[in-house]
Sequence to fold (208 residues):
Amino acid sequence: MREIAPGAVHVPGWLTLGEQQDLVRACRAWATGPVPIRHTVLPRGGVMSVRTVCVGWHWQPYRYTREAHDVNGRRVAEFPAWLGDLGRRALADAYGHPDDGYDPDTALVNFYDGQAKMGMHQDKDERSDAPVVSLSIGDTCLFRFGNTETRGKPYTDVELASGDLFVFGGASRFAYHGVPKVYPGTGDPATGLAAGRLNITMRMTGLR
Ligand SMILES: O=C(O)CCC(=O)C(=O)O
Ligand SMILES: [Fe+2]
Fold:
């Protein structure tokens, strides 16, 4: 466990192998539908290198809706109760105190192949300042965690490996962060993911 910045905590190896296998299975099912996983298209036409499927609420830059209007118009899969339980347990373990009613209602499931990256950004489309809970499975990545003012320095580079938990809330909730690099071939195929990196972020949208 390491505090990267106030409210930002990295917990290496938080998920068991069995939990990682269960999450890989769940993400595989979500990736097929009702809204299939896809490369998100940005408003100015750019295409994200990461592939994303959403649960609970659909994120499309830069808002949440129930239906995936930029994919097939269908309503995304329900956010399952077990995932909320996992999110509360994650938060309690990362912060070392009970979760004060953390109730995530959306998860963004990102799949990175060996070339995929994510630029520095803030998670700020939620109407809530509740923490973001991030779980990583598969290949290790370089995760850059910065500050709330600018995309640039100061930032801290952290390696997120399979099973790692990262929580950012409080003073770090709106910090810029990104994934400059994935290290292909570093994951354990026993998770069920033969290649690439899976990242699941749970959030509270504040919507209803
Ligand atoms: O892949 C990660 O570790 C971060 C993903 C992320 O920042 C996001 O989905 O907003
Ligand atoms: Fe993010």
